[in-house]
Design goal:
Radius of gyration: 38 Å
Shape: flat
Number of strands: 47
Largest sheet: 6 strands, antiparallel
Number of helices: 6
Structural class: mainly beta
CATH class of the largest domain: Mainly Beta
Distance between the termini: 69 Å
Length: 664
């Protein structure tokens, strides 16, 4: 958090010395279109809680002229055009709508960044003014005051000349480490708010900006900048990339491009290793098979063999195996277990190895085939038992496993070394759900193998519960509350239970609302027993066919608001015209303010047309309309609309006011 605070402090004061009496930092710049001077101001929380007035004076003069016709303040409703550009503005608007003192450092940082990148957002925050009356060639200073005339900050003097971009950032360089281009430049917070990176994959081609948001470079706890300011992990191996860096001033205007930086991304990444290595054995002839995807830079394959499963592997193919082949035949001299692995090599010489495949070399005198193979299952473990062999030259047993009993080639050896006991424990993932088929082979001291035993089949116990459900929304519909959630996608999902509790009720526990199981296909439930004006807390549990229950979902609170009580109070809506004060006074009474977000006043000046809002969202229960034409007789129609916290809109009746014109 200290690091974030340091960044915010750096952003607001721009590393410049500020007057100790100033509460706001004021800056100014010529706009890129040369049509006006842009004036901006920043407080400790970026924007201010109070309204602002903007003044201007010529150089060497203290004759301040007020520029704005009405006080500048933060707006209440963020423009839809901003939300369309960046959905983050919805959350940002909610964060800055409350008490300014409650805004934390992280939110201040985000608000600061967005106010630079989006001029419309600076307008929304009420921290920006466009001086279109300035005269080119003249020098000005700007002053920011509160509506009582108290000075909050004064800008440095500037001359209104044609706009000129800042010089590009200094000391730009690029290094490539582990296929990642690392870009560095010398940060300068006096000139730049942040930085953008542009890139193309062809020299001379127009570059595209690859940084969605401005890069803000901050010092670490030791007061030093990082060695690199940006790393690009979105490039392709084997290509050449060209970069430029630009700085952004505190008005969102870009500097000149830096010198071009070139990065060559060498291919040092090995191809995908061969998979599904299998073998067919006839006497001492071993034919290996494997799978490997076709990739553009695949060169071929090598085969390695050893008498140990961990080391001593030797390449046995004299020439690289063609990339279009997926098999190799080896002639061995010794019986017993041989260990193989296959590698894939790309055109850059990178090599990737498969897992080790054990292969048994047998003769023609097999021991007795094991019988009475049975299995038992526990969490993550399957135990296999069989009748012990009575052969005198028995060396041990091999155990094989598959998930398909119909294909003998699918059986995989799971103990590379023979075991002497007539039992084996196979450790498997706890979440495994399919059936497993096991066969056992006996082997003697001459490495003669018996036939496969009859298979034994078993499934792992299901001990994994479904994932915790997520409630999407709880909405009022008439006299009911509709609970909607996101669907769980477990294949063994059985259904859901939904629970309700009155908030802050310490006596009663959660109650299950559904009498019968809610279908696994359902994502909606209707609470028909919800009482009005009571805040409920809802949660959902999912369960599977094995009886495993998920955690309770996160609580979602909702209230079924009794809107009839609110609407009834509109019988007290009054409107009257005061000739002396030249205004229309509106007042109304609402008894229950707990569930009300605010009010808006609507008006139209003729009997035709639509009512249009003349206020933003207000919390008072009275309003004086001073924006009426008292020089011309006419009729005004008024309506008050209530906005509840759950999204309902309740309208009052319409009041008609006739405006009289005093005759001289």
């Amino acid at each position: 958090m200290n690091k974030i605070k340091n960044i915010i402090l750096l952003l607001i004061i721009f590393s410049l010395s500020a007057n100790a009496q100033e509460r706001i930092k004021v800056i100014s710049s010529v706009s890129e279109n040369n049509n006006e001077i842009i004036v901006k101001w920043y407080g400790k929380k970026v924007f201010t809680a109070n309204a602002i007035d903007v003044y201007r004076t010529d150089a060497n003069s203290e004759n301040w002229k007020k520029l704005n016709s009405s006080p500048i303040n933060k707006q209440t409703i963020i423009p839809q055009s901003l939300i369309a550009k960046d959905e983050a503005f919805t959350a940002i608007a909610n964060s800055v709508s409350g008490n300014i003192d409650d805004i934390n450092g992280f939110v201040v940082l985000i608000v600061m960044i967005k106010s630079v990148e989006y001029p419309e957002f600076a307008d929304f925050l009420g921290i920006q003014y466009y001086d279109k009356t300035a005269v080119k060639g003249k020098s000005y200073k700007y002053k920011i005051t509160d509506t009582n005339g108290k000075t909050l900050g004064i800008s440095d003097e500037m001359t209104y000349n044609n706009f000129e971009k800042l010089n590009s950032p200094d000391s730009c360089r690029i290094d490539v480490k582990k296929h990642i281009p690392l870009i560095a430049w010398k940060p300068n917070s006096n000139k730049y708010f942040g930085y953008y990176v542009y890139r193309s994959n062809k020299k001379g081609k127009e570059k595209t900006r690859i940084t969605k948001q401005a890069i803000i470079v901050a010092k670490n706890d030791k007061g030093k900048y990082p060695e690199y300011n940006f790393n690009d992990d979105t490039m392709n191996i084997g290509e050449v990339y060209y970069y430029n860096i630009v700085g952004i001033d505190y008005f969102g205007q870009e500097s000149k491009l830096s010198k071009e930086l070139v990065a060559v991304i060498k291919d040092e990444i090995p191809p995908r290793a061969p998979a599904s290595v299998n073998a067919n054995v006839k006497g001492v002839s071993v034919k290996l098979f494997w799978d490997s995807p076709i990739i553009p830079d695949l060169a071929g394959f090598n085969v390695y063999r050893s008498l140990s499963k961990t080391d001593g592997f030797t390449k046995i193919n004299k020439e690289l195996i063609d990339k279009n082949y997926r098999s190799y035949t080896d002639e061995v001299e010794d019986v017993g277990v041989q260990y193989y692995k296959v590698s894939s090599i790309d055109t850059a010489g990178n090599e990737a190895y498969s897992y080790v495949r054990p292969v048994e070399i047998t003769d023609v005198f097999p021991p007795t085939t094991p019988t009475n193979v049975i299995c038992t299952a526990d969490t993550g473990v399957i135990n296999i038992f069989w009748k012990a062999s009575e052969d005198s030259d028995l060396k041990g047993y091999f155990v094989y496993r598959t998930i398909s009993k119909t294909d003998e080639s699918n059986y995989v050896l799971i103990n590379p070394d023979p075991i002497t006991e007539n039992r084996f424990s196979d450790t498997l993932p706890k979440i495994a759900r399919n059936k497993f088929y096991y066969k056992v082979v006996a082997i003697d001291t001459s490495y003669n193998r018996s036939d496969y035993s009859e298979f034994a089949v078993i499934g792992m116990p299901d001990v994994t519960p479904p994932k915790k459900p997520i409630i999407k929304s709880v909405k009022a519909e008439g006299d009911k509350l509709i609970i909607e959630w996101f669907k769980n996608f477990e294949t063994d999902l059985a259904g859901y239970n939904i629970y309700r509790k009155v908030k802050n009720d310490t006596i009663n526990k959660k109650e299950k609302l559904n009498i019968s199981t809610i279908s696994k296909k359902s994502i909606v439930f209707t609470d028909i027993f919800a009482d009005k004006d009571i805040e409920y807390q809802y949660s959902i549990v999912a369960f599977d066919t094995s009886g495993n229950y998920s955690e309770f979902s996160d609580i979602y609170s909702a209230i079924l608001i009794d809107t009839s009580k609110i609407a009834k109070d509109f019988s007290n809506f009054k409107a009257s015209y005061n000739k002396n004060k030249k205004l229309v006074k509106l007042s109304w009474k609402i008894k229950n303010l707990d569930n009300i977000k605010g009010f808006m006043i609507y008006r139209k000046e003729t009997l035709k047309g639509q009512l249009k809002p003349i206020t933003g969202l207000i919390n008072n229960t009275e309003f004086n309309d001073k924006r009426i034409n008292t020089k011309k007789a006419g009729t005004y129609l008024y309506q008050v609309r209530v906005f509840t916290k759950k999204g309902e809109i309740i309208k009052s009746n319409i009041k008609k006011i006739n405006i009289d014109v005093n005759k001289k």
